[in-house]
Amino acid sequence: MDKKSFYYRLILLFLLVSVVPGAACNFPFRANSSGQVNDLQHTLTALATLIPDEKTPVPWNEEVSEPLPGANPPTAIPTAASFQRPEPPQFNPGRNSFTYLAMSGDTPEAVAKHFGVEPEQIISTEILPLKGLLTPGQVLEIPNELGETRFTEILLPDSEVVNSPSARDFNINEFIQAAGGYLAEHRELVNGSWMSAEEIITKVSMENSINPRLLLALLELRSGWIYGDRGDLEQLNYPIGFYVPDYRGLYYELVLTATHLGVGYYGWRSGDKVALTFQDGGWLRMAPGINPGTAALQTVLSKISTQEEWRNSLYGEEGFAQLYAAMYGDSWSRAAQFEPLIRPDLAQPELLLPFSPGERWSFTGGPHRSWNAGSPRGALDFSPATGESACSTSRAWVTASAEGIITRASDNVLAIDLDGDGNEQTGWVLVYLHIVTGDEIHAGKPVNADDALGHPSCERGNSTGTHIHIARKYNGEWISSGEPVQFTMSGWETQMGERSYEGQLQKEGLIISANPGGPSSSLITRQE
After folding, report:
1. What is residue 83's predicted lDDT score, i.e. its pLDDT?
2. The domain containing residue 64 runs over which residues?
């Protein structure tokens, strides 16, 4: 083991010893099985728990380390002039205001929440859209209502957090084997099947749409498994350090990690999450100028650290940013190839309702979590009105909402890549849940709009009735059902409700309200 790796081991030992006493308080409770309609129903997995969320910003060290021995360093890439690491907002003392440059995916509403102001208090020489996306780089002047905030620098590009085009060519197994640590030999039993570390990381990364590089870096920070040896039995059970009794092992710890990353990322994206809470009860208001990627990293580490530990692991001389650069090189040069992930002119392609014309289905679930508690309200539910008993596999078929290529068809999950490259990290992707997939549906298979995909069911996750759950991703980021990129199918526009599973579909003056009971008022028929 080289000097740098040994130094990381010492830091990790200190962090692990420090975090153990109170970490179990992070995770509230499992999803109940009462059948009550809430954020946990109809999601993919029983791990969709209600996790409290807060977040904050972080700094950056300009010195970039060489990749660690055994790592797979990226090819040198010239930084694109159109995308650079954002700088903190500039404070204007005379006006007691900030000059802020809009980032990819920003909306006026979210930016206002970040700065603690109302949208109408934001001033710009350019037109501000009422609900749409701001143009990256647009200059905004915003009153300073927060006073002084700390930890204003940005740690990671968004593309290093979501499972974006940046991760398209990243080979998890090659990286693990080249690193030569314990992870290369790790195997564990997951839901009745033995899985390697590569299979576990691939599964968590793809299902939660989290960049595998980040999962590996957090695992190295917390356990040292990438380059070092396995720790004791406690570390084997809790390599990240959540210490939730019923969630032992690498797979479940990484699911919790991915969930908290999503809570931070999408909570910041919407502006609904503006503070961090720590293991010791500390609280910190986030700085308003950070990006979702930084918010995600800050959130997950706040859940397993005291405030002092959090500050040291992110702001110390040999903190996370230095470790990440040592493992993968300059993330901002890499991001320049792929960002901005969300462009201001982003528009959804034409989509059809996921069943055949003339069939009657019920709109049983308005906008709710795309995947679990760490994703936005980006999914809709539909149930076939065929009169079959609850939770039986329906004779009705789920159909493709658009032409594309199947990228996944297993474990009652099916994903269709709409841009035709067969890659789930790029462009628009539709994800269907609770499908009983047939032998004829497999990864790599091209499909046309209206092709049969499988039958809806209750399989996989918490379900009270046979249905299909459908959500959208773009460049690896889960897309909310409402503004600024509204979920529209066969001309029916989605309207958000106040709470998850509530909402409406509207078309040409007609309104259909979501109802899990499937009454006649929730019935919808495709007319094409």
Report:
1. 62
2. 3-80+152-335
